[in-house]
Amino acid sequence: MRATTRCVTVRAMPTAEVVSPAGQGLLLGAGVFGTLLGLGFVAAGIRGKQVWFAVWGGMLAVAGLAYLVASSLGY
């Protein structure tokens, strides 16, 4: 008895361009809003002596700024 092998050809799926359902302006607006809101939370946290609120606001501001910088660099 002779064993046979089959050769299977795998075709690559066509790649589609990844498109965001939200427009670029909306995403940039969300980055600006998050940055400003985060800075406001930092100020309110410091004024109210709530460390967690200031830290959370700082992380929100950093994330908003990171998105704005990445967007301006083309990422």
Tell me what the structure shows:
The protein is mainly alpha-helical and 75 residues long. It has a domain of 40 residues. 63% of the residues lie in helices and 0% in strands. The protein is built from two helices and no strands. Helix 1 runs antiparallel to helix 2. The relative contact order is 0.15.
Quickly describe the structure:
With 75 residues, the chain is mainly alpha-helical. The chain contains two helices and no strands. The chain has a domain at 34-73.
Structure characteristics:
elongated; 75 residues; mainly alpha
- Count up the helices: 2
**SSE succession:** HH
User: Based on helices, strands and strand pairing, what is the structural class?
Assistant: mainly alpha
> Sheet with the most strands?
none
- Kindly state the mean pLDDT as a whole number? 86
Output the radius of gyration.
24 Å
In terms of topology, how is this protein built?
Blueprint: H1 24-47, H2 51-73
Helix pairs in contact: 1-2
